[in-house]
Amino acid sequence: MIGLLSGTSMDGVDVAVAELRLDGDTVQLRPLGATVLPYPDALHEKLRAVLPPAGCSAEDLCRLDTYIGQQFAAAARLGIELAGGHADFVASLGQTIYHWVQGSGRARGTLQIGQPAWIAEATGLPVVADLRARDVAAGGQGAPLAGVFDALWLADEPGTTVALNIGGIANITVVGGRRPLAYDTGPGNALIDLAAGRITGTPQDTDGRIAASGTIHAELLELLLADGYYRRPAPKSTGKEHFNADYLARALDKLPAEIGDGDLLATLTELTARTIADACRNEQAAKVVASGGGVRNPVLLTALRRLLDAPLVVSDDLGMPADGKEAYLTALLGFLTWHGVSGNAPGTTGAAGPRLLGSITPGAGPLRLPEPANQQPRRLRMQPGNTAQEALCDLST
Q: If DSSP codes are grouped into helix, strand and coil, which group holds residue 198?
């Protein structure tokens, strides 16, 4: 099956293809390949133009839902090629355009665009989509949904392991700790990309070069760390509705003098590292396993290793491609729904209980689902493609 999503960095569609099989209480997953289909520049700009605090009309939303759906359809066709010309179905997490969190920290709604009908029409395959809304309706945060995957994947690691994903927003899953837990720690690349885009025209500090040229601005860092989000109890979630251009501008306006480009990027990189490290320390992490685009920023990784009390490894070291992990997660979530199995971990998102996630759009023919599984999977066997190595993980919670 094919897993698709575009994260909060909004730079393109992540595509992953996996062979999944349900064997009793074990899900066996063999990664077959992953890639990214970048958004065209014009589409990327349209997305950025409607992010808060900007407005978004019904016309804007309709057009974007169509354009993103068509881009996801193209990504799905690319996934079929990666699969050798055949796939059974597609799972799509879409493109988050708004995540509604009240001041109290409760998630009230979430909106992902990328109409799945375009994917079904382009591929003839059924599509499992809209995977976050049911968790929110059940009182959960709807994000991050990585808890199920991470708990299965890392359950045999000794002590408390934290799975860290650094996208536009950074999130962690705590495995083997005092309780199952997953939450957004705060900005990952969101503010870094925003500042880099203003400086260079490209929303990315490639290899952390700009940050490496500067010095951490203590006063700005203190202002940013004063944000109340960091002191909210978990589970919690956030997004670019909060950490956006106006947010950064308000902080900069409080400084008595302008800050240089290098110092700004150095400070924002330190903010991401500090808030991640504080969260991992609070969860008494014995090891941190990192994935997502942020792991390609050596300045950020160096800062994390300096601030963490635990060793940090990249998920590639454990056989899971850091750039493709969330797309493989999407494939797993779709697979669980397809087999009538809950895809949320209530202890991680705060939902009232386990729920079947998503909606299914039929493909070219009648929808034929397998018989629902008669037990919740408790084990994930990952079979790295083209290698003999296997990691058997047991889910005990």
A: helix
